[in-house]
Sequence to fold (156 residues):
Amino acid sequence: MKIEIGQTAPNFTLHDSDKNKVTLSELRGQNVLLLFFPQAFTGVCTKELCGVRDNIALYNNANARVLGISVDSVFTLNKFKEEQHYNFSLLSDFNKEVSALYNSIYHDWILDMKGVSKRSAFVIDKEGTIRYAEVLENAGEVPNFEKIQEVLARLN
Fold:
């Protein structure tokens, strides 16, 4: 289903790279930035997430919890987070359920891979409402972080 601005964000529970369960509805009271990305250790994904890491103060100042989501295993994400010194949570959607729920999944991707997360960004406000939604068809592009930051600034 397509995610629309103004709708309640679909709830989910996923394991993070430290094997802890993270449930979206339990984050009510703070803004959330969901960033779906295709695969750990790839060039564009690393560049995108390093940009978030280097600008984490912008998200902290907006009372926004950043969650990166991919279909990689928790073990792969743990190594990726460790090597890149990410200062936000990476969640494993290994079963591809949340990526599908957010209409953020490639059914066919490069090298005959199936079921890889599309690069996407969703801003969810403190009440759990979608305030920004961007799903990219081209994995070589990154979300519009200027617009994301504008939306987060308006929420505070």
